[in-house]
Amino acid sequence: MTPSTIDRDAGYRLLAEMAGPSTVESTLTGLDSLAPGFPDWIVTALFGGTYQREGLALRDRQIANLAALTAIGGVEPQLDDHVRNSLRIGMSAREIVEVMVHLAPYVGVPRALAGLRVAAGVFADGADGADDAGGAGDSGDAGNADGTAPGGAR
Q: Quick check: 85 and 44 in contact, CB under 8 A?
């Protein structure tokens, strides 16, 4: 069996690149005070392990994350983070919207709409990269300012 390689330092560097150093620090510190050691395990195992594997580009991994979190449902804070991370690594708002729309026949319209509401909230916040990411207000509009989908659907 091939042993996995885990690189803690690479994990922290990647997370800082994707989420921004201040976000990482505030999130990890708060979680560590609640569950000591757990944030380090997350960063080390995921960002220093799984994300470091060959075979998928970071963009492709983010698309998989967006799809999985939208399909699971009920994990809006994590989906919000991954929408922001996707923008930071260069995905456009339009591409993120299309991931959610593409999921509708596979995971259901309510889950796709929930994903679109999260994305619309991130775009409305002006998250890093959202201003030059194709804009949520163009023909790929993810939703209205109140988080509803176009036409008032929820």
A: no
3-class SS letters over 49-82:
CHHHCCCCCHHHHHHHHHHHHHHHCCCHHHHHHH
Residue that has been written with the tokens 């699971």 in this structure: 72
The four Cα atoms 77, 79, 85, 87 give a dihedral, to 10 degrees, of -120
Look at residue 91 and give its three-state secondary structure: coil
pLDDT digits (tens, 9 = 90+) for 73-104: 999 999 999 999 999 999 999 999 999 999 99
| CA distance linking residue 101 with residue 23, whole number of Å | 28
Considering the entire predicted model, what is its pTM?
0.79
Helix or strand or coil: residue 32?
helix
